[in-house]
Amino acid sequence: MKPARILVTLTGTEYVDAAIDHALELALLHGAEIVGVTDLDLSRIEMVGMVPIGAVAAAADLVEHRRIEAEQRIDAAIARLQNACRDASVPCIIHRETGEPFETVARSWRFADFTIASLQGLFDYGVVREPDKMLIRLIRRGIRPMLATARVARPIRRALIAYNGSMEASKALKQFCWMNLWPKVEVDLVCFRKGVDDAPELLEQAAAFCRRHQFEKVQTFVQDGSPRDHLHDFAVERQCDLVVMGATARARIFSNLLGDTAERMIRDSVLPLFLSQ
Fold this sequence. Notes:
The chain has 277 residues and is of the alpha/beta class. The chain has helices spanning 16-30, 42-45, 56-88, 101-109, 134-140, 167-179, 199-212, 227-237, 260-268; strands at 5-9, 33-40, 92-98, 114-118, 146-149, 158-162, 186-192, 218-223, 242-246, 249-252, 255-258, 273-276.
């Protein structure tokens, strides 16, 4: 399934250039159009904490300064995408929104094939810090498949697929192969022994699936330990440009949390992540 419409979230951080570069690369490879979505969340802009008596005017000035700065960063991100698309003759649509960011992305995502978002600072325009990672919250809402970009864009020549035989890992493997976003990519398949009894057999089956979907260079690796503790280091050691993994919400007593490995990678990775359901 080739993407016809790619949704890219436009932030005001240093991550936005990488997200735009990846979106443009994929749009050119697959003849897709790009939809850029940005959001000015006024409720976060207005969070100034407790205001002492006599400081109301100063607090209002601070909010106005934040709003102006956020709008300037939004304008810069939109201009960056529009100019890049114009120069490359790629169709581009801008959804400039205000309000609740999750609803904004969900509305645009309904008719997009693939989403590109920043690993850090999603809808953070350098004005108000959001302690919760908004990317994790988007994934919990089901916004997938997704490329979560690192700070700097890099050519995707080698992809590491984390595979343990689970339904989530199998869905991620299949979706990555079906989409075939980077046709010449080399594939490394890794399975960590912790909690897996038949790692070599699972990897051979996964490798055969990849080869049937036109991936010519496929290698398999069985590693000790847990993926949560070792996946990122192994990806760096193998000089991979992308990590492919399932990201599913799982129930705990009163909350929905991502699997430990996915959440750890989202928080700590210096590599882009292909996240699937």
